[in-house]
Design a protein that fits this description.
The structure is a single chain. The protein is of the alpha/beta class and 279 residues long. The protein has a domain of 169 residues: Metal-dependent hydrolases (TIM Barrel), CATH 3.20.20. The protein has 9 helices and 7 strands. It has a 7-stranded mixed β-sheet. A hairpin with a 2-residue loop joins strand 3 and strand 4. Helix 3 runs antiparallel to helix 4 and helix 5 packs across helix 6. The longest helix is centred in the middle third of the chain and has 27 residues. The structure holds adenosine monophosphate and manganese (II) ion (3 copies). The site of adenosine monophosphate (AMP) has 11 residues, from helix 5 and helix 6. One manganese (II) ion binds next to loops.
Amino acid sequence: MLRDLHNHTLASDGSLEPAALLDMAVEKGIDEIAITDHDSVDGLMEIHANKAQWSLNIIDGVELSANWAKQTIHIVGLNIDPRHSGLTSFIKLQKSKRQQRALQMAHKLEQSGLTGSVADIEYMADQQNMVCRTHLAQYLLERGAVNSFANAFKQYLAKGAKAFVPDEWFALEDAVAIIRQAGGVAVLAHPTRYKLSSNKLQQLVVDFKSAGGQAIEVCYPNINPGQKNLLANWANKHNLLGSQGSDFHALDKPWAQLGKFPTMPQEVTPVWNLWDPSS
Ligand code: AMP
Ligand code: MN
Ligand code: MN
Ligand code: MN
């Protein structure tokens, strides 16, 4: 069984329509896929009526941005009810936070000499379902302000860069709680990508567990074997299940391709035991 439990579509900063993502997943022989857009369930709603069309198990998911110890962290929710009213209100607030942040960043871009940024980004934020820094990076690349996507983050959008605006997401506890209220399983996404020291990262895992978190991602692209072992140990030590996923966004990002990530260590209890106990 090949399960990819972390993916993006055009409903946030992915490049494919949900239907196209599912077509590709079937082509690649994936048996189970979770669509987990940033702060959005619109992609799920789009394919809801046609799920039977694809010969794989489709999991309704989401990836919420949250705040922990002044850091932004990501919590994936799996098997959520996308129509849950509390989750719907939460997402509505996230959307307005994202729009505000995009406009604040636009003002900073304008101040740093990129004239027209405010008007362009105002328009973009209106058009986008869920505006992400990825979209701003694409904008900077297209107008020739940077020579690569990575440099858009380095020079303008990453922490400490010219147009950075600190995130003001809800707390980790709130994000976990809303996922659980919507019937979902809360998964700490890509723990090693937050650039935290080992001690701080373990504190995050502990706090996530106390908040009601049930699983952590152990297998994802670019993780090295040492990091994977560490996460496997922490999953067991803190009684958390293990999850996996490619965090696929687009075909032109070869480091994160659909269905491609290291295998789950034997000693970790996989999160899919919750919905597929015979596995
Ligand atoms: P946001 O949630 O709007 O702050 O945007 C975060 C998204 O931007 C992540 O989910 C990634 O897809 C992308 N991203 C963040 N940092 C980088 C980076 N240094 N290079 C490329 N993409 C990045
Ligand atoms: Mn993203
Ligand atoms: Mn993420
Ligand atoms: Mn993601």
